[in-house]
Every structure is written in C-alpha cells, then in structure tokens.
Amino acid sequence: MNGNPRMMNWRLICCSAVLFAVQVLLMLPQPRCLASTIYDQSDGTNIAVSSHPYVLAPNDQLSISVAGHPELQSTVIVLPDGTISFPIIGKVTAAGITVDSLTRTLSEKLNQTMVNPDVTVSVMATSSQKVGIVGAVHSPGQYNIQLGYRVLDVIAAAGGLSSDPSVTQATLIRAGTGSTVAVDVPDLMNHGDESLNLPLVPADVLLVQAGTMQQVQVTGAVQKPGDYPAGANGETTVNLLTDAGGPLPDASLAHAQILHQGVIVNIDLSSLRKNIDSSVARIRVMPGDVLEIPEGVEKVSVLGEVRNPGTFDIPDGETLTVVSAIALAGGTVDGSDPTKTSILSLDANNKPRAVTVNLGQILIGKRQDVVVAPKDVVYVPAHSKGGTNLNDFSWLSGPLIALSRF
User: Fold this and answer.
1) What is the dotted CATH code of the domain comprising 130-210?
2) pTM > 0.90: yes or no
C-alpha cells in the first residue's frame, strides 16, 4: 500500500484508541436491577416488562469507598431502622432508596469537608427477606424479596389477581411505620402507569381488595338468564344478548324493556334478528339495570269466510294489516262480503268493540290498508242483505278473551 507514512501511523493510533475505549467500557460494572415480566393469567401472554434499579432494604450489606481515601473504605449493614453509619458523616438513611441515590447523598455530605469526593457504593449481599400479599390473588402468602422487587412483581409471584383488575384496588402497608399507600390497580394493570408500581422493602404487605363486580341482569326469553359484567359505562344490548346465549325462538325483542333506577324504558330490539350492527345494538345498559326480554310472540286471529281460519303469529317487530292478515288465512272464499270486514278488539273493560273496513276498496287502492293490533280478530262475514251491528259479534267474545291471555 502506498501513502503518507505519517498519515498511516495516525490512523493506526486512532483505531487503537477506539479499541481501548471499547474494552474499558466493557469492563465497567453494570448496574444491578431486576427485570420483571408480568403475565396475563388467562392466556399466559406477556403484557408488561419492567426493569428497575435495586432499592436498598434493612440487613443489606454494602461496600462504600472514596477514591484516594483508603481509610474511608467501609463495609456496612443497613440497620433495621434503615440507616447506616459512615466515617466523617455519621448516620445516613439508606433503606427505601436506590444505590445511586445513596451515592449522591454521601457525595453531597462529604463535599462539605472534601473536594469533589468520588464515592462508590456496591451491594455485596442482600438478606433473605419477605414481603406479604393478601386478598384477591391466587396464592396469597409471603414471598422472598429480590433485587428491585415492586408491586407488580409480588402480584406475579402470587399467581396474579383472582378478580377483575377493573374493579380491584390495593393498599401497600409499609414496614415499620405502618403507613399506607393506595395503589390504583386498574391504572397500573390496564394503563401501565409505572408511577404506581411502587418499590417494596422487606416486611411490606400488599392488601389486594376485590371490588363489587358491576353487573347487568338479563331476564326473560333468553338462553341463559343471569347477571353479566358491565363496565362503568355499561354494556351494549347486543353484547348482553350474546353473553346470555341469544333470544329464545318465541322471544319478543320488539317489546324489550330496560329497568333503570326504577323507571321502565321500552326498546324495540327486533332489528337485531336481521342486523346486529343496527343502531339499537349500541344502546348501553348501565350497571344495576335489568334487561327484560318478554316471552311470547304476538298473535292475531282471522275468522269467518276465509280459506284457513285460525290464529297467526305477527312477526317480531313487524306490523300486520287487514290485507296481510287475510292473506295469511288463505284469502276470502266465495259468498263472503269483504266490504263489511271487521276488526274486533277488547276495550279496557274486556268488552268487544268493532271497526268495519271495506276490504274491496282497500284492494283497489281507494282506501288505505288498516293496521291490525296484536290480539285483534279480523272477521270476514258472509254476504247478506241486512246490515250488521255489534250484537252480531257477541259469539266472538270468547276468542277475543282467549287471545288477550297470550
């Protein structure tokens, strides 16, 4: 290779310096910390990973040195009251803080009598200490504390929560002082708020309290009536019906009701049979409410001069007219008088009342078709020269009353 010898020597010197720097960095001691992995107990999937510096605790053994001052080299043990003693300084609180924090504290205090002291603190040994966890976890008890143990670590060691995190709260009872710190479990578990993942020291106790599950009661014509969970913002009607196994074949979704704080709200859910994405699917039922799906399909009777007289179902959520009701009965027969077709129903006193409609004019479009209400009787009389009056229908009181009991 040709070139300037001085330039080649300079490049070799630079490369050697870089390699030396890398070697020095690799030889430096790495900070000790606990990497903790928390798993969802239902399927074992990883949901959070956290790494935290070690928090000092009573009975930890520390090595403390000051560069250039071998006389200050000390091996100390954190006392039960959380303090250590160090030459020149005296007592210093160590428990509950990290190694870096203790190093800064010692440096600041020594700086009052020394110039830029270079302090090194190392954890030589940790004693076998325990923290307790009781309440709504799968395996409550005492667990050995490890480097960097925090709230999520002891919850994981106890097998995870045994209750829904969204309604669970916890209280951390501090060792020695008995002071308490509230832990918002929903924010910690669901939203990953690391500020709530508090460090633990030996003899701490975590009390996990399961709240009352927010529920909605689904009753009536569903496959599995019962109580179903609903968040603080409630649950949608379609999800609740799905949880309850769906409606029974004879359920009347058109006449569903929600009992909310003592008030009955009528809702028509019949469109869910055809489209689960309809607007009524998004109606929310709040915790403590009752969703009632009534039993029984609405019916109407068609009697008189028709091919197949009888009682017929009104499709859930749909309306039935005189023309469509007579069509269900096969249409009229010869000798009938459709111009005097009557719709009979019961009044509030269970007395029959009749409304006459001219089916002939409806069929040719001169009059509007008439809606038939559930439990009505459509009656097509035979052709006669005389008129009709209410007494002509007295024999229909029995069928009307029978229909009213459906």
Assistant:
1) 3.10.560.10
2) no
